[in-house]
Write a structure and sequence with these properties.
Blueprint lengths: L1 H22 L11 E2 L11 E5 L4 E5 L10 E2 L11 E2 L5 E6 L7 E6 L8 E7 L6 E5 L4 H7 L1 E8 L3 E10 L2 E11 L4 E7 L2 H9 L3 E8 L6 E7 L1
Parallel strand pairs: 1-3, 2-8
Antiparallel strand pairs: 3-6, 4-7, 5-6, 7-8, 9-10, 10-13, 11-12, 11-14, 14-15
The protein binds copper (II) ion.
Copper (II) ion binds next to loops.
């Protein structure tokens, strides 16, 4: 009986792996739902709509009347542009651009045609798989200790903003940085500044196993290790 339960668990684990592979990085198995309007003016179809991390939302105007509607983020991002927005449309559907770059969280939006009447919120669910790739490029202990910088390559598997990095040797914190923005599919090399104590610890060592952890807000942390000699 115990063996049977064990095998069921293995099947579930295997299915999870197949799902993660077949659906690609960052796409959970839950389906994203479209942002809808009511069939009459002027309201959205629900108070809250949910999409998977890394996906572009769809706006469906189901209003049978003459008034157009849109989706416009209440918060702005870089360059003072809305975090996400759609075209203004009548009956039909259109993509909401920018939602694929949102981290997990809740975002308010409104209709620019009816800003006081139409508002709702978009919930972005965390990714089931890592959203950031991490590789430690530094190999030699001497240059890292003398420069006080650890070279790390990051890759945005999904767009991830405000990623923080921590470098450790065992339990000792060597250094950290924050506020790293990564575009989807783009690699970026950063130099993690080490603290004075971190530098001194490396200077005293003959070799050091260093671990760097990248934490995208709301998503799972990802680590890489490298022995510096
Ligand atoms: Cu409207």
């Amino acid at each position: 009986m115990g063996g049977k339960r064990f095998s069921v668990r293995r099947v579930i684990a295997a299915l999870a792996v197949v799902g993660a592979t077949a659906f690609g990085a960052g796409q959970a198995l839950a389906a994203s739902e479209p942002i809808t309007t009511s069939t009459g003016c002027c309201s959205y179809g629900k108070a809250t709509f949910t999409i998977d991390r890394g996906t572009t939302a769809t706006f469906q105007n189901q209003d049978l009347g003459p008034s157009p509607h849109d989706v416009f983020s209440a918060d702005s991002g870089a360059n003072n542009r809305p975090l996400f927005s759609s075209a203004q449309i009548n009956l039909g559907q259109t993509p909401v651009s920018g939602t694929d770059s949102l981290g997990p969280g809740t975002y308010r939006f409104f209709c620019t045609v009816h800003p006081t009447q139409m508002s709702a919120q978009l919930v972005v669910t965390p990714s089931a798989s890592p959203t950031v790739g991490v590789t430690i490029l530094s190999r030699k202990l001497g240059p890292v200790a003398s420069s006080g910088k650890l070279k790390v390559k990051l890759r945005g598997l999904l767009a991830s903003n405000d990623v923080s990095l921590t470098a450790r040797q065992g339990k000792r914190k060597l250094g950290s940085m924050r506020g790293v923005d990564l575009a989807a599919g783009v690699s970026r090399t950063v130099r993690v500044p080490l603290s004075r104590a971190g530098r001194n610890a490396l200077k005293r060592a003959g070799s050091a196993k260093v671990k760097v952890t990248a934490t995208p807000p709301g998503d799972q942390p990802v680590s890489a290790t490298q022995r510096l000699r």
